[in-house]
Amino acid sequence: MKPLKPYIGTALLLMIAASGCNNDLDEKIYSEVTEETYNYSNAYQAISIAYANMRGLISHTHWYMAQESTADGIVMPANASGWDDGGIYKRMHLHTWNSENPQINSMWNTFYAGVINANRLIDQLSNDKITIPAGTTKESLISEMRAVRAFFYWMLCDNFGDVPLITDRSDELLEKTGRKEVYQFIVKELTESIPNLSEERNTLTYARFNKWAAKTLLANVYLNAGIYAGETRWEECLAQCNDVIASGKYQLETGLPAPFVTENQNSAEIVFAIPFEENLAGGFSAHMFSWHASLKNKVNMLATPWGAGSAKGIPQFINTYDADDQRLKATWMTGPQFAADGVTPLKGSYDQAGKNVVLTNELPDGLYTGEAEGYRMNKFEVKTGAQGSLGNDFPLFRYAQVLMMKAECLLRTGKANEAATVVSQVRARAFSAKPAKATVSGADLAKTSGYGYGYVENYKVVDPGNTAAVQYGRMLDELGWEFAWEGFRRRDMIRFGVYTTKSWLSHKPNGDYRAVFPIPQIAINSNPKLQQNPDYN
């Protein structure tokens, strides 16, 4: 977490050493431009690095699958094509990860890179090192970078708990700050910044923190305040959601796939997205780590998915869907698979020896599965001719989530029937063929979860584990059906009290301390002031 400059000399020495035959050591000055003398002529280009850093989050060894594969909807087991990788995926499912798991190190590094970039930009904007374009103000851009910094601190607070709170460009090594204090810092940064942010929803503010994206972030923070600070903030969350709704800037798409198609940047439902472009801004590869290799021919892909695929639906979760819920097929690839002509069956090549690929809703356990076992990712469109990286923007926040946060707050504050009205609004498009099924009641949402929790061996639940009812469990189920594959599940399960208490597939409870990840060992090695999170020592 030190500035770049102290390492520049080392890099130059290494380049000189590598050249071998160049003995001319006279200094050659190629440019007198330094950080102190350089002025950015385009503020939007300057702040783009703070957002570009977010693309790293969406991978199978990063934040994205750390949220999904540690929860009860998706698992990443080994199979005949590989995917053991030293156990880094199975440990996430089993909740036996350690401080050297790559997913944990990736999260820590990217979150703090985001913080450091935001700190640098706030400093440069404050000291007039960046030219402010017409149509905006220095105060607005500083507030935007404070919102970006708050976003990364939310990620740190949510995943690691107590973390160092760095708010300037100092290279001083810091101790951890308590989780509640980090939460309070995030709330303060957002509440002070929101009044200065743009209210516009257009191409200039897309994938940036305008007022409504920042309010949605703040609503997420308030929604989980009971976990972060031991104090619920349902009314405060509700107020932020109501502001976003009242803005009239966003709406539910009529079709389920619309927020997830390749060209989804114009979706009226997306409040804040991480933009991807397959050639210039790659890294979103959910199809590569979930799809079977033969599925390349389903859409004439230019890249081949990685083996038999790994990320797949947990049958206990799949079984919670209503058969008429169109989100089942819109989210999960199921059944016989065919080439682009729709006729030619796709063939297996690992443990199926040329048999047709028929994706089944069955897994023997969460550790090793057959190549065609388990439903696969179908939520994000994989266009004809897709490459290894998708061009779909990843919707971190969408209007459906704003509505569902509102519904949960209403439910938890004794307004169950009002909550049910909002949930029914979100469900409506998923039951367009059976509209009567879209309507739920307040009493429905107060029921326990329909998830068949329990430990699985040889395709069957052999140990139900903790069978206690889940308070508002039906609401948790609703969140699962709507937001599968979107990185929500770990956080939702923690809030509803099941993440460290229930068994699913090969997972059994492994301690409440697993509700946060350990500080990466490499970070502790480099900062003697850092102490490991409790019980990870």
From TrEMBL:
GO cellular component entries: cell outer membrane
SUPFAM superfamilies reported for this sequence: TPR-like (SSF48452)
UniProt name for this protein: RagB/SusD domain protein
InterPro entries in UniProt: SusD-like_N, SusD_RagB_dom, TPR-like_helical_dom_sf
Family assignment from sequence similarity: Belongs to the SusD family.
Compartmental location: Cell outer membrane
UniProt keyword terms in alphabetical order: Cell outer membrane, Membrane, Signal
Positions of the RagB/SusD domain: 316-536
A Pfam family reported for this protein in Swiss-Prot or TrEMBL: SusD_RagB
Native source species: Dyadobacter fermentans (strain ATCC 700827 / DSM 18053 / CIP 107007 / KCTC 52180 / NS114)
Annotated SusD-like N-terminal domain residues: 87-223
